[in-house]
């Protein structure tokens, strides 16, 4: 697994080995190459801090959000901005969903910290996207459609699901219960040269 070259905002540079990513300017998001819709999944990310040269003349402080996202989230927005993505941010370690910040972590995240992200989704019947909404079937898979849907699906809760985080190996506990059903991808949003 690595960072996707397809599910990424144009302001993010993914490293050649796909294990690193740097952003510039405002928030932008990249998803991993593989996702999961059931089971228990975990990944770690080490925040290296500022990683790119700014193209603007104004100096921006680097920031990061780490978590899980479906492809229904827009890549030009930070994860946690909607009900299809869940995040923890570096500034104050708040957890974020539907653009609401909720106190969570014990301290801010600094360069050099390793953030662990755990996702648990119970096995459930899968609901495939159907093209019975008047669009040609192939339109469901056009590049970019799934990251900015005009008519997103009605969110369905996956009962018993959970997302939790750790910081430098120390569990921070469960951040989110009963997440929205979907295929979740490791995701990171970068700001100001992170």
Write a brief structural summary.
With 194 residues, the protein is mostly beta strands. The protein contains no helices and 13 strands. It has strands at residues 3-8, 13-14, 21-22, 28-32, 39-46, 63-69, 85-89, 95-97, 100-102, 114-121, 162-167, 170-177, 185-191.
Radius of gyration: 16 Å
Query: Which parts are unreliable, with pLDDT below 50 for 5 consecutive residues or more?
Result: 52-57, 126-145
CATH class: Mainly Beta
Residue-averaged pLDDT, rounded?
Answer: 83
Largest sheet: 7 strands, antiparallel
Q: Work out the number of β strands.
A: 13
- Report how far apart the termini are: 21 Å
Order of helices and strands: EEEEEEEEEEEEE
Describe the fold and architecture.
It is built from no helices and 13 strands. Mean pLDDT is 83; it is low at 52-57 and 126-145. The protein has a single domain (3-123, 155-191), classed as Jelly Rolls. Strand 8 and strand 9 (100-102) form a beta hairpin. The strands form 3 sheets. It has a 7-stranded antiparallel beta sheet, with no helix packed on it. A 4-stranded antiparallel beta sheet has the order 5-10-11-12, with no helix packed on it. The protein is mainly β.
């Amino acid at each position: 697994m690595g960072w996707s070259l397809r599910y990424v905002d144009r302001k993010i540079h993914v490293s050649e080995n796909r294990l690193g990513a740097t952003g510039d300017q405002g928030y932008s998001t990249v998803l991993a190459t593989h996702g999961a819709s059931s089971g228990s999944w975990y990944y770690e990310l080490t925040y290296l801090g500022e990683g790119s040269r700014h193209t603007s003349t104004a100096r921006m402080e680097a920031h990061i959000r780490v978590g899980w996202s479906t492809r229904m989230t827009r890549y030009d927005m930070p994860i946690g901005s909607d009900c299809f993505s869940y995040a923890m941010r570096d500034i104050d370690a708040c957890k974020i969903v539907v653009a609401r910040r909720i106190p969570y972590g014990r301290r801010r995240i600094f360069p050099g910290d390793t953030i662990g992200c755990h996702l648990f989704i119970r096995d459930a019947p899968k609901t495939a996207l159907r093209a019975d909404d008047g669009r040609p079937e192939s339109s469901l898979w056009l590049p970019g459609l799934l990251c900015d849907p005009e008519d997103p699906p009605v969110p369905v809760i996956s009962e018993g699901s959970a997302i939790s985080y750790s910081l430098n190996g120390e569990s921070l506990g469960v951040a989110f219960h009963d997440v929205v059903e979907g295929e979740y991808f490791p995701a990171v949003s970068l700001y100001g040269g992170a």
